[in-house]
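FORM 12-B: Structure-to-Sequence Request
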C-alpha cells in the first residue's frame, strides 16, 4: 500500500479484472434479498411505472372529496347530458390563467334534446381552495374545501354530466374509492382462506388433504358467473350500500380462494420434505410454527405476485355484478354502478362521455397486470 500526500492509500498490486468481478458477485450474494428484488424490479419499466401509478391512486383515495369539484350525487337539473368542458388559458389572445366558458342550455323542440353552447363572451376564472359541497376527508373529517371550482352561476363538467345532471368526473373519482377497495378486501378474504386450507392440505396430507381437495374441486366445477349472480341476488335489497359493499367483497374473496389453496398445497407438498423442515420438527417446533416460520416465507414471493394478479379480477367481478344490477346499487357510487347507467347503446352513441368509466377500469386492470408481471420476475432475483 502506498500512502499519498492527501492521506489516501493506493494498492500497489496490479489491477485484476477477474478479482474485481468476483468481488461484485460476492457483494450481490451478500446483499439483503429486498435489495436484489428492488434492483431487478427497477429494470422492469412497465412494472415500475404501473406500481407508481397505483400507489398514487391509493394514496389519493382519502382525498377524493377535496379533488372532486362536486359531490357524487349533486344534481344540476338544467344541465342533463352536458358535454365536457375544456379548461382554457387564453381568451382572445390574452392570458387569463385557468378559466372556462359557461355553458348555456336550450331545449330543442324538434329533436327533444338539450343543446349546450359555450358563452365565449363571458370567461370565468377557476377558483382554487374554495368552498363547495360538504364531504368527509378520509371518511372522518367534515370539510367543504375543494381544490378548484367555478362561480355559483356556472358549472364545471370536465368529463360532461350524466342523465341526472351529475358530474361524471367527480363520480369517477368517488367510484374509485369502492372499486379499488373491493379488490383489497376480496383478496384479503381469499388469501386468508386459501393459505389456511392450502397449508393444512399440503402439510398434513391424508384425510384432511382429501376432504379439502374435494371441496376445491366442487367449487371450481361451478360456473363462476351464475354463482356470482345467485349469491349477489341473495343479498337483501333493503341493506345499506356499505353492507352490500362488504358482502360483495366477501363473496368475491370466497369464490377466489380455491385456486390459491391448490397452489399453496402443491408448494407445501414439496417443501415439507426439506431438511430444515425436518430439523425444526425434530427440535419440537409445533406444526403452526413450522408453517409460519419455515414454509410460508419460502412461498411469499409467489403469494405477492398472485395478489397483484388477482386484485384486477376482483375489480372486474364487482364491475360485472354492478353493471348487471346485482352488485352495488345507487346511491352508492362505483365504476360498475356508473356503467349500469350507461347500458342504453343509443344514449352512448349520442352522449359518448357517459361510457368514460370504462377507461379507469381498463387502465387500473392493465396497471395491476404489469405490476404483477414485474413482481413475478423480480421476486426471484437469482433467476436470469
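FORM 12-B RESPONSE
SEQUENCE OUT:
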Amino acid at each position: 500500500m502506498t500512502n499519498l500526500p492527501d492521506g489516501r492509500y493506493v494498492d500497489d498490486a496490479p489491477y485484476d479484472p477477474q478479482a474485481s468481478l468476483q468481488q461484485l458477485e460476492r457483494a450481490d450474494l451478500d446483499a439483503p434479498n429486498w435489495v436484489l428484488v428492488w434492483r431487478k424490479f427497477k429494470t422492469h419499466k412497465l412494472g415500475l411505472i404501473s406500481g407508481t401509478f397505483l400507489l398514487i391512486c391509493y394514496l389519493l383515495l382519502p382525498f377524493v372529496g377535496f379533488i372532486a369539484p362536486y359531490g357524487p350525487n349533486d344534481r344540476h337539473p338544467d344541465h342533463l347530458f352536458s358535454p365536457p368542458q375544456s379548461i382554457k388559458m387564453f381568451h382572445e389572445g390574452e392570458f387569463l390563467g385557468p378559466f372556462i366558458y359557461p355553458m348555456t342550455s336550450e331545449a330543442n323542440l324538434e329533436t327533444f334534446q338539450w343543446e349546450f353552447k359555450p358563452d365565449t363572451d363571458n370567461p370565468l376564472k377557476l377558483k382554487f381552495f374554495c368552498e363547495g359541497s360538504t364531504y368527509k376527508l378520509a371518511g372522518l373529517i367534515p370539510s367543504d374545501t375543494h381544490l378548484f371550482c367555478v362561480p355559483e352561476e356556472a358549472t364545471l363538467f370536465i368529463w360532461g354530466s350524466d342523465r341526472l345532471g351529475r358530474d361524471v368526473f367527480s363520480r369517477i373519482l368517488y367510484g374509485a374509492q369502492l372499486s379499488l377497495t373491493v379488490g383489497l378486501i376480496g383478496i384479503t378474504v381469499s388469501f386468508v382462506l386459501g393459505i389456511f386450507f392450502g397449508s393444512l392440505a399440503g402439510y398434513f396430507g391424508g384425510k384432511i388433504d382429501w376432504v379439502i381437495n374435494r371441496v376445491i374441486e366442487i367449487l371450481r366445477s361451478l360456473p363462476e358467473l351464475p354463482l356470482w349472480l345467485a349469491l349477489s341476488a341473495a343479498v337483501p335489497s333493503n341493506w345499506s350500500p356499505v353492507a352490500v359493499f362488504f358482502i360483495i367483497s366477501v363473496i368475491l374473496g370466497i369464490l377466489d380462494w380455491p385456486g390459491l389453496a391448490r397452489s399453496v398445497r402443491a408448494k407445501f407438498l414439496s417443501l415439507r420434505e426439506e431438511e430444515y423442515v425436518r430439523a425444526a420438527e425434530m427440535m419440537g417446533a409445533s406444526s403452526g410454527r413450522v408453517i409460519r416460520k419455515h414454509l410460508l416465507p419460502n412461498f411469499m414471493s409467489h403469494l405477492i405476485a398472485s395478489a397483484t394478479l388477482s386484485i384486477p379480477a376482483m375489480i372486474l367481478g364487482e364491475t360485472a355484478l354492478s353493471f348487471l344490477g346485482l352488485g352495488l346499487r345507487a346511491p352508492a357510487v362505483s365504476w360498475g354502478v356508473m356503467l349500469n347507467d350507461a347500458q342504453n347503446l343509443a344514449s352512448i352513441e349520442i352522449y359518448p362521455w357517459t361510457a368514460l368509466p370504462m377507461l379507469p377500469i381498463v387502465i387500473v386492470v392493465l396497471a395491476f397486470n404489469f405490476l404483477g408481471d414485474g413482481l413475478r420476475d423480480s421476486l426471484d432475483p437469482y433467476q436470469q
